[in-house]
Amino acid sequence: MLLDRTPEQILATLIALGIGMTLHEYAHNYVGWRMGDPEPARQGRLTLNPLVHINWVGWLMFVLIGFGFLGAAPISPYRMPRENRRWRWLAAVAAGPVSNLLVAVLVMLVIRILGMGFVGELPDVVNLILAYLMYFNVILFIFNLLPLFPIDGWNILYALLPPNLAEQWHKHQSTTQLIFFGVLLLTFVQLPGIPNIGQVLFVDPARSILRAGLGNLLYLFYF
C-alpha cells in the first residue's frame, strides 16, 4: 500500500511501471502492425510516447494497491491477412508480455556485466529503480500469461489451440473471466496458515526468475 512506502519507493514504482506498461503496449501495437493490422498506425500508436499508451488510472492503481490495468492496444486478427492469421495474432498478443521479460533480462545483463563494484556505488534511489524495473517487468510478464480472459494469456492459448479446441475454449470465455476476477480478489485475502494466492502465482515465481538472473548480486536489490 502507498502509506507503507517511502517517497523513493513511490518514485521508483512510478518509473518502473511507466516504462513497463509503455513498452508492453508499444510491442502489441508494433508487432500487430507488422503482422498486417493497419489500425495501430492510423491511431498513432507506433511510438514510445507513454502519453499515448498508458492508462493513467490503471497506472496509479498499480502504484496504490499493487494491481491495475494496462492500456488497450487497437489490434484485431480480423484486420490481418488471412494467410497465417492465427500465428500473426499470436505474435501480436505475445509481444506484450515478452517485451516485459526482455526489459528485465536486459537490466539483469547490464548489472551482471558492470559487476558488483559498480552497482554497489550507485545511489540507493538508482538501485531501487533498477530493482523495480526488473521486479515489476517480471510481474507483468507472469501476470499477462494467465490463461484467463481478458489477459493476454487467454488469447495466446486461444491462438495455440487447434481449431476444434479453440472453439471450445472460446465458449468458456466468460467463465475464465469470472475466475480472473476471483483470483484478483483472493490476492487481497490473507488467511492464517494459507499462502496468499498473489504470493504463489506472482511474487514467488518473480523472485525465482530474479534469483536465477542475478545470482550473488541479488542482495543489492532488496529482494
Q: What would your notes on this structure say?
A:
The chain contains 10 helices and no strands. By secondary structure, it is an all-alpha fold. The chain has one domain. The longest helix is centred in the middle third of the chain and has 36 residues. It starts with 6 loop residues before the first helix and ends in a 9-residue tail after the last helix. The mean pLDDT is 89.
List keywords for this structure.
mainly alpha; single chain; 10 helices; globular
Give a summary of the structure in a few sentences.
This protein has 223 residues and is mainly alpha-helical.
Shape: globular
Q: What's the structural domain tally? A: 1
The fraction of residues assigned to DSSP E strands is: under 5%
Number of helices: 10
Total beta strand runs: 0
Structural class: mainly alpha
Helix content estimate: 55-70%
What is the radius of gyration computed over CA atoms, rounded to a whole number of angstroms? 18 Å
Largest sheet, strands/sense/barrel: none
One letter per element, helices H and strands E, the order comes to HHHHHHHHHH
Mean pLDDT, to the nearest integer, reads: 89
Low-confidence stretches: none
State the end-to-end CA separation: 17 Å
